[in-house]
Design a protein that fits this description.
341 residues; alpha/beta; Quinone Oxidoreductase, Chain A, domain 1; six-stranded parallel beta sheet; 10 helices
Length: 341
């Protein structure tokens, strides 16, 4: 099979091609696994964190990609209830132990043995991939492969973030950063909280224009002041400036939800400027989002199908993965990018 492979940590600021194109043997499904012929794989900012070493893979080489939709072509021993030819999806959670206190209490995303697709195990930047059957999901018929791929991470983790935001209908929601997850959260919030205004903070004028076209009530730059303070803000940026800006734009008792795996170090010095009175006073809260559970993915796919949520997608051949990653790294991308073998 053809695969795009990460062989070492790479500095993408120099426009270096991060992935090597290789011909590899098609994996064989182990007991409890299924083999998928990949139909589409979304591109996520977390891949940049893997490539640049902020959340490095435990081994090299590794095939990235954790928003995978494909057809089942084989099942390993012990797999039941999944038919050959059916469509299944794979998300960021590749596996968890299933028996620790966290797993048993519904927090498998926090399991010490959590394994991530495309980082701790080979992912979907390839023509085939194997995955534990219990950690795959049926894809609603409503969606094409290309539409479904971004739902598995940007959409599902956005759903988890929105639930953690603790918003009540009518309260103002803020979104700082407006990429593959943010634009799906806007659509989701419009359905779940129809009376809630949504304000979008984004550096790019293209992103602000997209936000307005999708129904944002206001859109401005990262440090612009919105018409009113927000009850909750969800941050999906790799930088620290939006965190400080968002805290200043929360109302008393408001909550900031940070939905990223790692923050880049480029503006970390800003943290020295944090002020208790400006940023934290009045019982403001900061909540991080760590990984995702299978329940999040299943619940979001069901909601997305019922509300006919379709992400804004851009399709590319698998061979163009390097260009897509560089565009994402340097702010030249909008919406959700999807690779097709």
């Amino acid at each position: 099979m053809k695969a795009l492979v990460l062989e070492r940590v790479v500095d993408l600021s120099r426009e270096t091609q991060p992935l090597a194109r290789l011909e590899l043997a098609v994996p064989e499904p182990k007991p409890g696994e299924i083999l998928l012929r990949v139909g589409a794989c979304g591109v996520c900012h977390t891949e940049l964190d893997e490539i640049e070493g902020r959340t490095p893979p435990p081994r090299f080489p590794v095939i990235p990609g954790h928003q995978v939709v494909g057809r089942v072509v084989a099942c390993g021993a012990g797999v039941t209830g999944i038919e050959t030819g059916s469509r299944r999806g794979v998300a960021w959670i590749y596996s968890a132990c299933g028996h620790c206190d966290l797993c048993l209490s519904g927090h498998e995303n926090l399991c010490a043995h959590f394994r991530a697709t495309g980082r701790d195990a080979d992912g979907g930047y390839a023509e085939y991939m194997a995955a534990p059957a219990a950690f795959t999901y049926p894809i609603p018929d409503l969606f094409t492969d290309i539409e479904a791929a971004p739902l598995l991470c940007g959409g599902a983790i956005g759903y988890r973030s929105l639930m953690l935001a603790g918003l009540r209908d009518g309260q103002i929601l803020g979104l700082t950063g407006f990429g593959a997850s943010g634009h799906q959260v806007l659509k989701l919030a419009r359905s779940l909280y129809p009376a809630s205004p949504v304000f979008v903070f984004a550096r790019s004028e293209k992103d602000r224009d997209l936000a307005r076209s999708l129904g944002a009530d206001w859109a401005g730059d990262t440090t612009d002041n919105p018409p009113e303070q927000c009850a909750s803000i969800i941050d999906t940026t790799p930088a620290w400036l939006p965190v400080l800006s968002a805290l200043e734009r929360l109302r008393p008792g408001g909550r900031l939800v940070i939905n990223v795996i790692r923050k880049e170090s480029r503006d970390r010095d800003l943290l020295a400027e944090i002020s208790y009175e400006r940023h934290l006073w009045m019982e403001k809260e900061i909540k991080s989002v760590a990984n995702i559970t299978r329940a999040d993915v299943s619940a979001f796919l069901d909601i997305a199908a019922r509300m006919k949520l379709r992400p804004e997608v851009r399709q590319y051949p698998l061979d163009e993965a390097n260009r897509v990653l560089l565009d994402l790294r340097h702010g030249r991308a909008t919406g959700a990018a999807v690779l097709v073998p």
